[in-house]
């Protein structure tokens, strides 16, 4: 069939048009790759980043930046508020453990020593001052043994516990000889005795809990064995004991074993200990021991040193009858057997029990199992007088909940909770991807600030810890990280503990259970996006300022909109600020905001500067 007139011309024209479109698309793609023509959405984000800029944000922080600085900083941005210093009487303010509020609550089961936070209208909205003479704490490991008296100016324990060598006052420093009520010869000798029964040295024991820790010398000396101890004690007449611990660079929180569940997941700790902690293990209804059992791993150890053990020697000193002491000891051991614990050691003041690895190996089966479906759902939940059941096993040799690698292999091994699909939305593959991501992020932080990972920032907090990737990437004997899992986030804290890390549940709409000036570095990853509609950013930022040490650092990683709000508030808080791009470049919506808290002490200024 003969083609119609002009068909060949139209065919040639079509080829020409197609080639032209291909060339145009290539040029357009090249133009976009060069950083232009990204579209309205990116243009809007870049505009928002520019809004973050102002002349008050420092370009000369304590560290040398390696990332591109975003924007030209101008002074047109409104400072929301310039925050004044609180009265000096609040220098050691702990909002949820204040004595005046505590005394309004019952003393039964230590309820008055638990968390009781102020209502919104009573919250302080000022900056907690450091005491006059405050000095950056000694670097680790010297801080284990010494603290500046000006930082924690309390001598009560130097007198009350003088014969037990908790703490001594020498000139302008406090000295911590490593003593304790039950180890006057020193924590090292005490731990050596425990290690004759418990495999402390080989990485089997990595996480521990010290109930009623004093100044946390046990936890401080366990660090030499590469064991991380979560130490806690109430804010009571033993003045500033947890504050001393944190000043020494030892993990600790204000807390008590009372009527509310401990803020830790089930099967969290390889080891628990009570060294004359005054918890009524044998005289209460068994609830306290059942709560320790909940947080103790299958195969874990519990150490009790002090009353009622060695009652033959001390019952007169305790002003108790032999019959009373024997009855208490018998009650403790009966309850331990009901919990499927076996006594492994008793000598002098010390008794050591080991929890069986699964229910199959129990001599006596507990009768009153807890009905709750989730033993990790504990935030502000009442402790129950019931036994947390072991996870099911397929054989008598299997460790309930999954066997853990020895540390440090445990740090990057897949946690059993993830391997078994028990962490919502997390697979083994996504877990490894998360580890790689955080190694990259931490490398970027170290490029921004070469001191990250050094002993300069000993006490570190991750406010929204996720799977613990940040803590794992920064792990070093020079630092420790408090991994906080918000109560509104996916519950990942159990997996964090299975990595050999420590942490705690918390609600950032409330004050944290610690003293002022206890953290050197705070990391906030997408925390403010999470709390956008939950509570005021101002309250969270003021709490961060309270617990951050002078000249400490905050690293925010978040979307642009929350960072705009954060920076507006932070400009009035005596923080120096710097904004940088994501490590992958300026067109990634996630940005990094660095803050350095200025050094100032009580009485220096009545109101904040604008960070000039």
TrEMBL record:
It comes from Beta vulgaris subsp. vulgaris (Beet). It is a single-pass type II membrane protein; Single-pass membrane protein. Belongs to the methyltransferase superfamily. Keywords: Glycoprotein, Golgi apparatus, Membrane, Methyltransferase, Signal-anchor, Transferase, Transmembrane, Transmembrane helix. This is Methyltransferase. It comes from the Eukaryota. It is found in: Endomembrane system; Golgi apparatus membrane; Membrane. The keyword Hydrolase does not apply.
């Amino acid at each position: 069939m003969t083609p119609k007139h002009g068909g060949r011309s139209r065919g040639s024209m079509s080829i020409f048009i197609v080639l032209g479109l291909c060339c145009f698309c290539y040029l357009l793609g090249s133009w976009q790759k060069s950083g232009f023509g990204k579209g309205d959405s990116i243009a809007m984000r870049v505009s928002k980043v520019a809004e973050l800029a102002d002349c008050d944000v420092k370009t000369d922080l304590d560290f040398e930046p390696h990332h591109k600085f975003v924007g030209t900083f101008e002074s047109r941005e409104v400072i929301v508020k310039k925050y004044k210093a609180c009265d000096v009487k609040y220098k050691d303010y702990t909002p949820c453990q204040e004595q005046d509020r505590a005394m309004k609550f019952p003393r039964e089961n230590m309820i008055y020593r638990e968390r009781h936070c102020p209502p919104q209208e009573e919250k302080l909205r000022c900056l907690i001052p450091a005491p006059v003479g405050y000095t950056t704490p000694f670097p680790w490991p010297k801080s284990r043994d010494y603290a500046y008296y000006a930082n924690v100016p309390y001598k009560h324990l130097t007198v009350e516990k003088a014969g037990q060598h908790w703490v001594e006052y020498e000139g302008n420093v406090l000295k911590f000889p490593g003593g304790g009520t039950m180890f006057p010869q020193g924590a090292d000798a005490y731990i050596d005795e425990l290690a004759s029964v418990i495999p402390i040295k080989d990485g089997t024991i990595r996480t521990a809990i010290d109930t009623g820790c004093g100044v946390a010398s046990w936890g401080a000396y366990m660090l030499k064995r590469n064991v991380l101890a979560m130490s806690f004690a109430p804010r009571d007449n033993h003045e500033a004991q947890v504050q001393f611990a944190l000043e020494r660079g030892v993990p600790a929180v204000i807390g008590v074993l009372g009527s509310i569940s401990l803020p830790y997941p089930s099967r969290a700790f390889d080891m628990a200990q009570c060294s004359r902690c005054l918890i009524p293990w044998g005289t209460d209804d068994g609830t306290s021991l059942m709560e320790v059992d909940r947080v103790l791993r299958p195969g874990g150890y519990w150490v009790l040193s002090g009353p009622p053990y060695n009652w033959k020697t001390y019952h007169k000193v305790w002003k108790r009858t032999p019959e009373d002491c024997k009855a208490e000891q018998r009650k403790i051991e009966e309850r331990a057997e009901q919990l499927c614990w076996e006594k492994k050691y008793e000598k002098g003041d010390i008794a050591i029990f080991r929890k069986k690895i699964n229910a199959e190996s129990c001599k006596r089966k507990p009768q009153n199992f807890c009905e709750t479906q989730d033993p990790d759902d504990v935030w502000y939940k009442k402790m129950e007088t019931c036994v947390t059941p072991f996870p099911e096993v397929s054989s008598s040799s299997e460790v309930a909940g999954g066997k853990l690698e020895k540390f440090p292999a445990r740090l990057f091994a897949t946690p059993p909770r993830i391997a078994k699909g028990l962490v919502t939305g997390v697979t083994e593959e996504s877990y490894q991807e998360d580890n790689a991501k955080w190694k990259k992020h931490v490398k970027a932080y170290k490029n921004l600030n070469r001191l990250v990972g050094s002993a300069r920032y000993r006490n570190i907090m991750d406010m929204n810890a996720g799977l613990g990737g940040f803590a794992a990437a920064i792990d070093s004997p020079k630092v420790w990280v408090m991994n906080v899992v918000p109560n509104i986030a996916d519950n990942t804290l159990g997996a964090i503990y299975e990595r050999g890390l420590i942490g705690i549940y918390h609600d950032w709409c409330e004050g944290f259970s610690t003293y002022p000036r206890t953290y050197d570095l705070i990391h906030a990853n997408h925390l403010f996006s999470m709390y956008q509609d939950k509570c005021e950013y101002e309250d969270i930022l003021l709490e961060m300022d309270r617990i951050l040490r002078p000249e400490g650092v905050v690293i925010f990683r978040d979307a642009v909109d929350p960072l705009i709000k954060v920076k507006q508030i932070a400009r009035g808080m005596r923080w120096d600020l710097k904004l940088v791009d994501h490590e992958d470049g300026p067109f990634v919506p996630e940005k990094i905001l660095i803050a350095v808290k200025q050094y100032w002490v009580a009485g220096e200024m009545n109101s904040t500067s604008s960070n000039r």
